[in-house]
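Q: Joint fold for the lines below.
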Amino acid sequence: MAGSSDIVVVSGGVGAARMLSGIVQVVDPDRVTALVNVGDDLELHGLRISPDLDTITYTLAGEINPETGWGLRGESWQAMDSVKRYGGISWFGLGDRDLGTHLYRTQRVAEGATLSEVTAEIVAAWGLDLRLQPVTDDRLRTMVTLDGEGDEAGLEVSFQEYFVQRQHGVPVRSVRFDGAASASPAPGVLDLLGRAGRIVIAPSNPIVSIDPVLAVPGVRAAVEARRDDVVAVSPIIAGSALKGPADRLLVELGHEATVLGIARLYAPLAATLVIDEADAALADLVEAEGLRAVVAPSVMKTPELAAGLARVVLDGREDEA
Amino acid sequence: MAGSSDIVVVSGGVGAARMLSGIVQVVDPDRVTALVNVGDDLELHGLRISPDLDTITYTLAGEINPETGWGLRGESWQAMDSVKRYGGISWFGLGDRDLGTHLYRTQRVAEGATLSEVTAEIVAAWGLDLRLQPVTDDRLRTMVTLDGEGDEAGLEVSFQEYFVQRQHGVPVRSVRFDGAASASPAPGVLDLLGRAGRIVIAPSNPIVSIDPVLAVPGVRAAVEARRDDVVAVSPIIAGSALKGPADRLLVELGHEATVLGIARLYAPLAATLVIDEADAALADLVEAEGLRAVVAPSVMKTPELAAGLARVVLDGREDEA
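A: Joint structure:
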């Protein structure tokens, strides 16, 4: 299954975490590196918060909060209740257990550690064997210009102010990646992409999860150079995103919210696109865009389904198990 | 009782909090300002922590943790347990409820609020009517040079590294107040000292709680100028501190750990020194140092005893109730 070489998974949060949980079932986790988006990161209450890194860590550790889809199991909310007493910022929920992660990350960065180093420490503390690699140790922030009414028309906000505070319920005019142009790939990232046996583009939001990873100078070119070994998984199934605003964002930014729209976005990057059985009828149109279409069940409702999709992605062909 | 004018209480943490809880029982809390030490403050996990301010707030709100003497009642420790999982810094205990205070303070300061402003917001949120005034909005840190063995001989550490991390179990060679020389009194502090009807020096540690307040340029002179209206309460009773290392610190730094040692330190500042009944025999010697000695029960074990001591301090004479 893709030999014994490295597997790199270009990752956002929830969708990527599920994809990775499938992949580590079918290959040695030592071979797997998640190359993770940091455009969703934020500073709040003085803390450094990296939602995509943490969602992957908690999911792979089996500790993701099943009720919320983010944060940790067995969570309590005493700190946030206290912040609310003061009238502080409470729209971004931080459970007490989860806070410990942000306290640790913030302290280590203040001591001079890079985000890559702290992330490796956090992943090790959870006993995980895969690597989580933030795409850059530099500051990169996904900024969203809203297309709403009144004061919100043309207002630029951070990703989390769009996604969490406004519950991605406002139309979007444009997206940019603040800091990307001057960011450097984290140490080893370009080498890793160059030598990987397989590069997977996870079924994450192409606009606000995958694109900020590719926006770091050198990363898009490094993926394009490996196009033959790149397999993308469509985050759009039958015209909809399973979760989040990917479908609306695609349309608002002039793309098509179908596997065909995804095919057009990813054609320069990936030789293969995995699409769901629900979209089997569109396989020929996908191939007309210059990618090989592989049709497979892609809704990872169970660990078994995630493992099945992982086999498809790593073999580059439909699962025969 | 000292007319209807302002009462300023030069304050450290625990001892001052008890003194203040007595004072607000016997005068309108609107008249009372605690002028609070910030030399104990620290930055940890990226958070701004002000232990003396918080100890006073939580005590006056009736929410101080009775088991620890610091932090909040009904506390949980999920965030710290999480920090420990990562091998992070855990010697400074931060309960989940307490963390909310530090999150709020840190966010507000990052937004541009001064420590004075945030403190007023926190005090108001707890429904308190007295004022808490940090002596300065600038950075001032009590630094302690240890006199221990081996690596610790001559090592300079922050106050909390001495007090909490080493549980004040190491001899001290010297103390300095980093940043004091370039700090400014917070807005209104010098005016307040100038117009107060009574200035109280709380029974806090003279070396590491009272002295850093006085070290802010202008503050010591402002208190000295009001010497006739200044009443100090001895933190030393029968040669010992009720709590903390004040007695050992006094000796280590060349003072006498008795009410007489306190009298010599406070003679330039205060016309009156309240000493405990246990030290009644030393009253004449105290007066020989140039202060009036007032003998009164000064161990504030109950709210009634705290109120009794407050009456003495504000009247400047022994309680006759």
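Q: Anything notable?
A: Residues 94 and 100 of chain A are 10 Å apart (CA to CA). The first helix of chain A runs from residue 14 to 26.
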